[in-house]
Specification:
By secondary structure, the chain is α/β, with parallel strands linked by helices. The protein has 6 helices and 7 strands, in the order E-H-E-H-E-H-E-E-E-E-H-H-H. Helices cover 31% and strands 23% of the residues. The ligand O=c1[nH]c(=O)c2ncn([C@@H]3O[C@H](COP(=O)(O)OP(=O)(O)OP(=O)(O)O)[C@@H](O)[C@H]3O)c2[nH]1 binds next to strand 3. This is dITP/XTP pyrophosphatase.
């Protein structure tokens, strides 16, 4: 079976990529499958910069094609925060629960009509000696006043998808993977690259 390495340590992302690539008969490997893989510091100020940093570092290190995902939540009432700092919004060793609590607290006084937000996903596809390809996907929504649902990961329980009338964590895996920022970005990447280029056979 064909294999692709996703340069991530986030189990939620890995599951979603596995599901999205399943129909293509492609197996997804992540950094969790690779012993001693380096931690790449996310020093960029944009999702694109961080995705490129992660993909190019791992691709160079291992001399193979790699996809990296940098993603997060932009809340208009917080001037775009938590943004690129979504994973560490409540602090470096804090949990998804802590991050959601922080957002809910900060939005306590914010009216329903001013709770717009979007998930953003930048995907970078890096290959040895080739130009890196970067794409971005978005998913528009609103921040709820309390958590709803148990699927997904990260901020999904407080992210409401207006046209479906459900939180992201109330959607089935298949539903989330058909409308999410990650799904939109992956579709854009797929449209840009030749399928042959994407394939990586484990050495
Ligand atoms: O509710 C959510 N549904 C999603 O679909 C989603 N996608 C991203 N996020 C949040 O944004 C951070 C990304 O940060 P991030 O791109 O640096 O990833 P990460 O540090 O978790 O793993 P890695 O890929 O860097 O190894 C994550 O931790 C999450 O908090 C999401 N939240
Ligand atoms: Mg990260």
């Amino acid at each position: 079976m064909m294999k692709i390495l996703i340069a991530t340590k986030n189990k939620g992302k890995v599951k979603e990529f596995q599901a999205m690539f399943e129909s293509l008969g492609v197996e997804i490997l992540s950094l969790a499958d690779i012993e001693g893989s380096p931690d790449v510091e996310e020093t960029g100020t944009t999702f694109e910069e961080n995705a490129v940093l992660k993909a190019e570092t791992i691709s160079k290190e291992m001399n193979i094609p790699v996809i990296a995902d940098d993603s997060g939540l932009e809340i208009d009432a917080l001037n775009g925060k938590p943004g690129v700092y979504s994973a560490r919004y409540a602090g470096i060793h804090k949990s998804d629960e802590d991050n959601m609590e922080k957002v809910l607290n900060e939005l306590k006084e914010v009216k329903d009509s001013e709770r717009s937000a979007r998930f953003i996903c930048a995907l970078a596809f890096a290959r040895p000696n080739e130009k890196t390809i970067v794409v971005k996907g978005e998913c528009e929504g609103k921040i709820l006043r309390e958590k709803r649902g148990h699927q997904g990961f990260g901020y999904d329980p407080i992210f409401f998808v207006p046209h479906l009338g459900l939180s992201m964590a109330e959607l089935s895996k298949a539903e989330k993977n058909s409308i999410s920022h990650r799904a939109v970005a992956l579709q854009r990447l797929n449209n840009l690259i030749d399928e042959e280029d994407m394939l990586w056979q484990k050495p």
